[in-house]
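Recall that a protein's primary structure is simply its ordered list of amino acids. Everything else, from secondary elements to tertiary packing, is in principle encoded there. The following example makes that idea concrete.
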Amino acid sequence: MKEEMEFFKIDLVALLGVMDPNAEDELEVKLTLREKLHTFLMDPQYSRAALYWSFADMLAIVVSIILLVAESVPSASVYFETPEISDVYYFLYSTEILVNGFFTVDFLLKLVSWPKPWLFFKSPLNFLDFMAILPFYMEIIAMMTSSGNSAGGKFVVLRICRTSRVVRIFRFARHSKELLVVMKVVSGASKEFAMLAMLIMVFVLLFGTLLYYSEMGYDSGYNSIPLGCWWAIVTVTTVGYGDLAPQSTIGRLIGSIAVVLGIVILALPMTVIVSKFNESYGDVKRTTEREQLKNVRAHAIANGAIF
């Protein structure tokens, strides 16, 4: 649409004014302080300060992920655990506190400014924001409340908390319209993905069980049905690690059938999923374009371009 309008030299702002000349009255409603704060946090184009806040959020996410990755490197992990080695520990810990403090302030401001706070966690992105800051405070509580007798439990809690910090990367979804579009499209095709998951689950249980009983008496590693299901998952997804392989004639026959049917099971629903994906993607893109046109007209009226 944009290319056609540029080709025919159509003024977008003027066109919007002709299409909806009465929309100016809707824009004269003054925003409350709470609504301004909500717009400031959710729309980087609202003001220059909102843009800087968005950049700060992205920088905090990048720093947080870098710290998470660096903590897993053996040569660097000592700086995260042993303060006696150097002052780097205090710098890294202070950086972690600063990043989590920013995430906490951002989360609380969004909660306070949300139009209906009791529906705040209905949004998946808001729930991910909460999960991004929760591990930090759980880790502090675990370290403060643990005693010498519960050291093992403390390390389990710390490991879970540190692992769950990886959800912070999903905060990038707020700053990527394309990623938000993909998430909406995947949500729109949930029935098709559920159908594919059901087919794979039936396939895995069936062939995992058949292979387990066909390999009884052979030293092939299929000691239980869950191991047979693991082999079936690797087979249906065409990965083929090679860690397990049938030894009996019947087992190899079942394996051959599983390989062929696995390709069919993945191929048939995929055409339906791709078609639904394209349909949902087109709907979301059209909705996004209408919202962008509405925002363009709003800015044009605010700047006096449309009378």
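Confidence is low (pLDDT under 50) at residues 7-11, 16-29. Residues 249-302 form the longest helix (54 residues).
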